[in-house]
Design a protein that fits this description.
The chain is α+β, with helices and mostly antiparallel strands and 95 residues long. Helix content is 34%, strand content 18%.
Length: 95
């Protein structure tokens, strides 16, 4: 779904407390990621439903094209280390 298949994409929606928590935690890393608001992008909402059993569960995150539904910061950083470690260069990993 993402234009950045090797990167990190966070699918979110406004006022979602889980999204706010994860996005805030990611601010304290230097991990580069793209945010996609599923309320503004119907194709993104469709993608989230396709990986979340038909639900619009956010945050949904892709790491190098691999989807994770509502991951913790630790789970997300573990996936980055496993599938896209080049994205961590210079990033504070503070698990």
């Amino acid at each position: 779904m993402s234009d950045e298949p090797e990167g990190v994409v966070v699918y979110w929606r406004p006022r979602c407390p889980y999204c706010i928590r994860l996005l805030t935690q990611l601010l304290f890393t230097r991990l580069k990621f793209t945010k996609v608001n599923i309320w503004k992008h119907p194709d993104a909402a469709a993608f989230v439903r396709s990986v979340a059993d038909g639900n619009e569960t956010v945050p949904t995150v892709t790491v190098a094209g691999r989807a994770m539904v509502n991951p913790s910061k630790r789970e997300l950083l573990e996936a980055v280390r496993a599938y896209a470690p080049h994205l961590l260069s210079g990033a504070a990993d503070g698990s």
